[in-house]
Amino acid sequence: MSVRSRIDAIDLDVRAIVDEELSPKAQSRQIANFARQQLAEAQEINRQALGRVPDHVTIVDGRANAPVDTVRPDGVIVFAFELLDDLFSWIAEQLVRHAPVLTGAYRESFVFLADGVAVPAGVIAPAAEEYVFLSPLPYARKIERGLSSQAPDGVFQVVADLAKRRFGNMAHIRFSYRAFGDAGFVPYAPALRLTSRNRKGQFASDGRDRTAQKHERDLRRPAIVIAPRG
Length: 230
Known about the structure:
alpha+beta, six-stranded antiparallel β-sheet, 22% strand
């Protein structure tokens, strides 16, 4: 199932200015005709931007798949295009394009997750609150710091910035870090504050186990985090 997202300029929330002197039926017809014109324009915008016309759902006065002719004189017609899959495909392509290549292992390591669950390549992403792209390889952090001459500005932050400029009206897109291990995401482990002092008055270790904190820190990887707009 594709994920729907309402976005400005490409999705349409049609509120036409109608002639109040017309009958209610004529007003509804005027709104419906205006909506069809706006839909055609939006489809052309999408075609030029994406190279294709994505599917859409028509919502009339809150009713999905209702005919536009059934709109109330004071009603609203929404055309919601299914575009998140295009966003995900674009990010995946850009990561491959910007990835430095030596053995090819890094370029082939990218993982895409929906609410922490891996989405196989070629499968439409399920509805989720958060989507994440990352590489689980340990040296992904070194590459992100620009240690590869092929990617002097890193990879994930560069692609995140590009995606934000291109698709920022569709979703919240940001560069971040996520701890990712064999069992999936590892919860953030905050640094422990040293509150005890030694005889000299200096802060000293309080003897608490910091294994979880170190484990989480060691597993942090650069990531692109995507949260669909409502």
